[in-house]
Design goal:
Bound molecules: phenylalanine
Strand content: 15-25%
Number of strands: 10
Strand order of the largest sheet: 1-5-6-10-9-8-7
Radius of gyration: 36 Å
Helix content: 25-40%
Largest sheet: 7 strands, mixed
Distance between the termini: 71 Å
Shape: elongated
């Protein structure tokens, strides 16, 4: 009896069918009243009592197997039938909606691209940073207001661990591990504790550049920035540098470009001045070089930093900063062609 059951099991497992009729024929052969399984059930009465348990279990297994296999064959045949019915190989495919790159990514890539053509290599670093890399190594005095709770997000219960408020921390990390010549471009997200509005957000994006070598001068800085502005905003773009202050650069400047929205004529975007500010820059303060293990008597360097949102606004005139982080696909779809 057990032998018979095992034989049937093997037979059932190997069953094949290609049409619904064939499946039905198999069902009748194995599972109907007069089918092979019921015949075995009849024999079961003659099994000696001590074997009933074992044989009964095997019979049940066989029954489940047969039912499953026949159901499976029925499903397969059904799928093949529907696929066959309306398979139209000449039909045009469904349009696949492709995503777009985020406008900030598009502009970041463009900025990085321009500087990599000038020999800058990409450097990235952590967004959760320590005070040293964000502030102390950048020559911020202990009581500098930027360290204030107003600007800096602290990781709870760790006064030393913060969300970086500028990407200068990446420069510190590059300097501590490398000796000049250093020429890096550092894009990334930064955080500042600001109330969210159309003009401010608690996170935004920056790209900073750093070049350190022998005899690097302010002229080099100015020429590189002019080239950048013209590559980014067109060959007629003019730049001007205004003296400014940053703890990590000396001398420091802010750079304006001729307003690319009105071409310098004056409009509401440039507040009718014809100029818009796009970045901060300067010669790396010798104190920063020393703090990061670079000999300031042998080397000089320049650094610059810009907000990607600002550059994007100039290119695409996005009026509300919040749109960059809302993920509204109607907004993002506007950038399909810029991808
Ligand atoms: N780190 C400055 C900021 O976040 C930008 C900057 C970088 C300015 C390098 C000068 C030189 O505002």
């Amino acid at each position: 009896m057990i032998e018979k059951i095992e034989k049937l099991k093997a037979e059932v497992a190997a069953l094949q069918a290609h049409t619904a009729d064939e499946v039905e024929a198999l069902r009748i052969k194995y599972l109907s009243k007069k089918g092979a399984l019921n015949e075995l059930m009849a024999d079961f009465r003659n099994v000696p009592a001590e074997l009933k348990k074992e044989v009964g279990m095997k019979l049940n297994e066989l029954k489940t197997l047969a039912q499953d296999r026949i159901n499976e064959l029925r499903d397969n045949v059904a799928v093949e039938a529907t696929a066959g019915d309306d398979l139209d190989l000449t039909r045009t495919p469904y349009p696949i909606p492709l995503g777009t790159r985020h406008p900030l990514t598009i502009v970041k890539n463009e900025i990085v691209d321009i500087f990599s053509r000038l020999g800058f290599i990409l450097a990235e670093g952590p967004e959760v940073e320590d005070d040293w890399h964000v502030y102390s190594s950048m020559n911020f005095a202990d009581d500098h207001p930027a360290r204030d709770m107003q600007d800096t997000f602290f990781v709870e219960s760790h006064p030393d661990i913060i969300l970086r408020s500028h990407t200068s921390s990446v420069q510190a990390r590059v300097m501590e591990r490398n000796q000049p010549p250093i020429r890096v471009i550092c894009p990334g997200r930064v955080y500042r504790n600001e109330a969210i509005s159309a003009r401010a957000h608690c996170f935004f994006h920056q790209v900073e550049g750093l070049y350190i070598d022998k005899n690097v001068s302010f002229t080099d800085l100015k020429q590189v920035l002019l080239l950048f502005a013209q590559e980014m905003f067109g060959p007629d773009t003019k730049i001007r540098l205004r003296p400014s202050y940053f703890p990590f650069t000396e001398p420091s400047a802010e750079m304006d470009i001729s307003c690319n929205i009105c071409g310098g004529e004056g409009c509401s975007f440039c507040k009718h001045t014809g100029w818009v500010e796009i970045l901060g820059c300067g010669m790396v303060d010798p104190a920063v070089l020393e703090a990061n293990g670079i000999d300031s008597k042998e080397y000089t360097g320049y650094a610059f930093g810009m907000g990607i949102e600002r550059i994007t606004n100039l290119k695409y005139q996005v009026k509300d900063l919040r749109m960059f982080s809302e993920n509204d696909t109607r907004f993002l779809d506007e950038f399909v062609s810029a991808n």
